């Protein structure tokens, strides 16, 4: 089986699973955006995905994303979903259309300054494990205050919330927490309509909880992760 055939088959299965999970949740699959996570995979894999009709790709590292963005057609929509580093912000906004991991006031202000009025879409990362210092994002208890600061003190365009399900918490329960938080806040922050949640191991649970953006890598590209 060629690499193209392998990716195409994996993609077919993933779309079938998305459709099935959406049917169970009484949702329209067209409401759910698939972001294929291409981190650690060669640009040739991204080119295959493009040929198969995909346009939304996710990267976790600025250097890798910037390199691939230069080699793929201009109509690709690049999503940055990794840990933000202050020194990388100016570069990130040069290639990424959507940032899924906004999690600090300092970074928000630096993004706002770097963009100088240009528009990018931002998901606020919600940390469901605030006791862990290695987890980025905003605690649920601080979320409303954080959102207020972003809207009052920056020019960023907020489009939703993002989270990663904790390993010790049922994914369905974790994703439901985010959906409830969104429902509580959307009246005050009406642009906060997106829910970026769900990866290869738990995207059906995310769909059941209302995910609008899925970040799926290994179920489509496998676990090789070998850059060319």
Work out the radius of gyration: 17 Å
Helix content: 40-55%
Taking pLDDT < 50 over at least 5 consecutive residues as the criterion, the unreliable ranges are none
Report the sheet with the most strands, covering strand number, pairing sense and barrel closure. Answer: 9 strands, parallel
Strand fraction: 15-25%
CATH topology: TIM Barrel
Distance from N terminus to C terminus (CA atoms, Å) equals 19 Å
| CATH H-level superfamily | Alanine racemase
Helix/strand order: HEHEHEHEHEEHEHEHEH
Number of helices: 9
Q: What is the count of β-strands?
A: 9
- Structural class estimated from helices and strands: alpha/beta
Q: In CATH, what is the class?
A: Alpha Beta
How many domains, as an integer? 1
In CATH, the architecture is: Alpha-Beta Barrel
Q: What is the 3D shape?
A: globular
- Overall residue-averaged pLDDT value: 95
